[in-house]
Amino acid sequence: MKKLFYPLLFLSGAFGAEYLAKVEPLFKYPIAAAVAGQVILADENEEGKVSDKVIIRLDDRIDRVNLTVAQETYKNLKEIYETKLSMYEKIAAMTTKSQTEKDTEKINLLTAKNSMESARYQMESLTDIINKKQLSAQGLYVYDISVIEGNYVAPGTKLAELHDTSGSRLVIYVSRQELDTIEHAAVIVDGKADTYRIDKIWRETDAEYISSYRVELVGPAPKTFSQIAKIDIIPSKEDRKK
Q1: Rounded CA separation 17/65 (Å)
Q2: What is the pTM of this model?
């Protein structure tokens, strides 16, 4: 059943409206597996912390062996290509060689180049897979680690949820009338002006609150998240006269 009331709105009048909203992290990042593999590290000790550590790792032992082979193959094929390039440049400049001989050497050169580039691609692909098999928190807050060691994950499986706690975000829902004046309105949060600013305004009604419009505000990081903040939205004098 669709909700028709404005969530968290407790006063609305000619001089503004007041809302309550939960103080959320600036951004929330659900992280999904990009490649398949078995979980060999899931560091639950990092949950509830801002961390720079690798918190999840998938088994990459075979990939690393294959990468070593691919690197050696690429090195050898590169030497072959460079040798054939030197030979072709010499033959191409010789007047005693026929065009057929020159064309044959050119084909050999292009074949060597294709083999070298194929090896390079394999090497870079394996490097990419290995990089995708570990997840570092990268200075974010580790809200949840969703897998345990021994799990086998497929691409798209949720691994963790990381939060950016360097700032905060508030979400309120406003009426159509308030939407017309909110861009120039003063925003006061917990009695303080100029600490939050309007970040996003939806011009279509919310899918859940079908008669309201979503508005997001961003501001500084609080000492503690998930507290309830009081937001006053006060239209400008010009808008109040309309």
Answers
A1: 63
A2: 0.81
